[in-house]
Amino acid sequence: MPHTGPILEGRGETDYERYVRVPELLELQKPAELLANPEERLFQITHQSAELWLHHIDYEVDRAVAHIDRDELHLAADLMHRCRMILDLLREQIIILETMAPADYHVLRTSSLGRGSGQESPGFALLLNVGKRLWPHFTDALARKSVTVLEIEREPRVHYELFRLLQAFMDYDEAFLKWRYTHMRLAFRIIGDRVMSLKNVPAAQLDAGTREPLFPELWAAISELTGEFKPSF
C-alpha cells in the first residue's frame, strides 16, 4: 500500500504541521484560562511574531553583506528590498494593537509583563546596528569602484547598480523610521506621552528614535547634491 501518512518526523497529523511545527508554536501562548485579560493573546502573539520577523531581517542582512563583498550588488539590493517589505508588514501589524483599550493593556502591564519592555527586544537591538553592519562593506565597494556617494547621486545611471543599492538602503532606513514612529504613536495612544515605562524611561523619549537614520551619510549626500543646484531667476 502507498504511504498516506506524514513523512516528516515530529508532532502533528500532517507534514505541514510537522514542518511548520504548529503544535510547538501554539504552545508558546498562554492557555486561555491563564490570560490576565482576554486581550493578552493579541498582545503576546503580536510581539512573538514580530521577534520572528526581526530575526529574519537580521538573517537577510547577513546575506546582503556577503553579496556586497562579492560585488553582487543587485542581489544585495533585492534582499534589502525584502527587508523593507518586512518592516512595512511590522508597521501594519502593530497598528492592530490600537484596537486594544488602554484599560485592558494596563491589566497586562501590572499583572503579566513583570519589568519587561519593548526596549529589551533582542530583535530590535539587532536592527539598531544594521547601518553599522552594512556601511563598512558598502564603503569598501565604493573604494573598489573608485566612486563616492555624491558621485553616484550626481550620475545615478552611470553607477546604476550602486545607485540601486543606495536606494535600497534609504528605502529600508525610511521604513525603519516609520516603524519606530508608528510604535511611538501606539505607545502614546495606549499609555500616554507623560508616563514612565517599566524601565523608568519617559514614553516621550521614543520620539528621538524616530529621527535617527541608520545611514546618515546617505541623507547628508542628498543635501549636498541639492546645494550644488542653484536656482536661477
CATH class of the largest domain: Mainly Alpha
Mean pLDDT: 92
* Structure annotation, total helices: 11
Return the CATH topology of the largest domain: Methane Monooxygenase Hydroxylase, Chain G, domain 1
Low-confidence stretches: none
C-alpha geometry: flat
Largest sheet: none
Q: In percent, how helical is the residue content?
A: 55-70%
What is the domain tally?
Answer: 2
Structural class: mainly alpha
Task: Please compute the radius of gyration using only Cα atoms.
Answer: 22 Å
> At CATH's second level, what is the architecture of the largest domain?
Up-down Bundle
Strand percent estimate: under 5%
In sequence order, what are the helices and strands, one letter per element?
HHHHHHHHHHH
Work out the number of β strands. Answer: 0
Oligomer, anyone?
A: single chain
Q: Cα distance, first to last residue?
A: 86 Å
